């Protein structure tokens, strides 16, 4: 997967009206198939109970930013038999610090509250958020508990015990064969992504095809 190791768009709209009509026809006729997902050669051990869906992402990935609003809409109709979670993974640049930010906010129980602001800061406001000082400057006016953030941030120092959660996340990404983000892993058996399910499509259509593929995999888990 090369969809997120470089800052490239997921796809471009057809340049001509004829091309746009052709793309629309393709979109309406499209159905998910085996070329739109990968089945792991070695299935991972899955916990009993709900089917686990994992989004491997990085705040700084433009494709993750483009997918995010579509993901939030789709999650509202996720079957109760499926449990979703996000996992931040390091890709390049400041992604290790961003991963630490994710786990810090998650441990505080507020990651969902600040996710949109972090994406906007990185992709619309040109911020790097390369250290905790910049992160606090962004999030404190939005209600961040700075004292708690600093304590929790320290707990996720690479040498600290809590950093085991980060190492476990990285191992999970390796087990799923994640090479770029966003990648979605389902039940220790499948992966898909906008670059796989929606290759060459505009972001919204790539997202639609990704979630159609996930719907298909959830309904046919273990059968394809």
UniProtKB/TrEMBL annotation:
Subcellular localization(s) per the UniProt record: Periplasm
Coiled-coil segments: none
Keyword set includes Disulfide bond: yes
Main location: periplasm
GO cellular component: periplasmic space
All copies of domain Thioredoxin, residue ranges: 12-171
Alphabetical keyword list: Disulfide bond, Periplasm, Redox-active center, Signal
Protein name per the record: Thiol:disulfide interchange protein DsbA
UniProt organism field: Inhella proteolytica
């Amino acid at each position: 997967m090369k969809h997120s190791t470089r800052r490239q768009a997921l796809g471009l709209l057809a340049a001509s009206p004829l091309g746009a009509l052709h793309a629309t026809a393709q979109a309406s006729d499209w159905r998910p198939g085996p070329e739109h997902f990968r089945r792991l050669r070695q299935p991972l051990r899955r916990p009993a109970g709900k089917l686990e869906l994992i989004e491997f992402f990085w705040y700084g990935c433009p494709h993750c930013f483009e997918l995010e609003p579509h993901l939030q809409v789709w999650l509202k109709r996720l079957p109760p038999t499926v449990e979703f979670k996000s996992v931040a993974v390091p890709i390049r640049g400041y992604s290790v610090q961003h991963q630490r930010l994710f786990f810090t906010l998650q441990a505080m129980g507020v990651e969902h509250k600040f996710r949109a602001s972090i994406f906007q800061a990185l992709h619309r406001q040109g911020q790097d958020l390369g250290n905790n000082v910049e992160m606090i400057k962004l999030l404190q006016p939005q209600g961040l508990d700075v004292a708690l953030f600093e304590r929790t941030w320290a707990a996720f120092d690479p040498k600290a015990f809590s950093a085991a959660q980060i190492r476990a996340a990285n191992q999970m990404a390796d087990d799923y064969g994640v090479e770029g983000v966003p990648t979605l892993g389902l039940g220790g058996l499948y992966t898909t992504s906008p670059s796989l399910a929606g290759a060459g499509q505009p972001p919204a259509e790539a997202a639609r095809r990704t979630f159609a593929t996930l719907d298909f995999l959830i309904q046919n888990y273990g059968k394809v």
